[in-house]
Amino acid sequence: QAPLVEYGGGLVQPGGSLRLSCVVSGSIIGISEMGWYRQAPGKQRELVATRERGGGTSYAYSVLGRFTIYGSDGTVDLQMDNLKPEDTAVYYCKATYYFGDYWGKGTQVTVSS
User: Fold this and answer.
1) Kind of pairing between the strands at 100-103 and 75-80
2) Which candidate, 18, 30, 49, 79, has a CA 20 to 30 Å from the CA of 64?
3) pLDDT given at position 16
4) Nearest residue to 12 via CA among 91, 100, 101
5) CA-to-CA distance for 54 and 41, rounded, in angstroms?
6) How far is 86 from 38, CA to CA, in rounded Å?
């Protein structure tokens, strides 16, 4: 199936910004939604933001006003502003196809002074 390629993670100070990008390298036919999830040590993987094929978006309450998800067919970016230490996690891209979900390998985001 279509592989997902993630990039843009790294180390940033509190209050700083990062942009994550995810691109589908294979076919985009059948994708209904793409989004970003994250998992911190000792916690479950949680939704950060999603974008439907038609452009509708959803956000976790904890990132409202700070993160923005955008993209087009086969790509989804996450602009992260005013980052906090509690945003530190591995961030995963997900693409939902009619036949199931596919995940990227994850990219580390660390927010620390």
Assistant:
1) unpaired
2) 30
3) 98
4) 91
5) 33
6) 11
